[in-house]
TrEMBL record:
InterPro entries: FN3_dom (IPR003961), FN3_sf (IPR036116), Ig-like_dom (IPR007110), Ig-like_dom_sf (IPR036179), Ig-like_fold (IPR013783), Ig_I-set (IPR013098), Ig_sub (IPR003599), Ig_sub2 (IPR003598). It comes from the Eukaryota. The keyword Disulfide bond applies. This is Roundabout 4. Residues 103-203, 208-254 form the Fibronectin type-III domain. GO terms for biological process: cell-cell adhesion. The keyword Protein biosynthesis does not apply. Keywords: Disulfide bond, Immunoglobulin domain, Repeat. PANTHER family: PROTEIN SIDEKICK, ROUNDABOUT HOMOLOG 4. Gene3D superfamilies: Immunoglobulins. Residues 3-90 form the Ig-like domain.
Amino acid sequence: LRDNFRLQPGDLVATAGQALELDCVPPSGHPEPRVTWKKDGVTLDLTGDRYVVTNGKLRVAPARRSDSGLYVCVAANAAGERESRGAHVSVLDRLPTGRREAAPRDLLAMRLHLDNGTALPAAAVQLRWRMLTPALAPEGYVVLYRCLLPASTSWVQHDAGRELSAVIPALRRGYKYEFKVRPYAGGTQGLDSNIRHLWIPEEVPSAAPQHVTVGQAEMGNGTVVVSWEPPPPEAHNGIIQGYKVWGDGVGGGW
């Protein structure tokens, strides 16, 4: 199995009774890998009419509350097996009969396209998106983002209201982030947009190392020991890769 998954499942919120679809395009391999799915760590039994896998994509219809959980796409061939990242699915109850629908009927049919983001000088990102399908405007949009590097974090939500753009502030310089957008209405959320990755440019640290000390080494051969602590976290402005030490003394400098 070469490379990584060409398309991995994304988080999804659906309403009971509707169909839900999770995308998956496995890595290329020889022989061509076979795709199965796991829910909460258990391989799905694809017998019956509710589960259908077509070209790797999993379709579940009609969705039930019990379908909520963590889904993983599994690609396997004679050479080995590889799992995709996990796709959280939440299936909500239908609205009571006779109650006015708070969400447009075609909320889950909406398709959003997230354009390339722009890194702003103040460690922020400006995002813009557009609707790809003719549909009623949703109640609003939520931007989901998380850090990928140097470490992966949980998703954070930013409510953008009805605007087709948003500025995400207070990001970490030198970090790589992942962004997507989701429509919502009446407590129900639609499908995720495509994903964009953006690296926040670094700047030089805005403060010096702290608690610098110089001491004589125990070996007594003229060696000194210099120690310090990093600058305050808010002053890093990126990922500190190392330090340089200079000094002056009798007989020359460093």
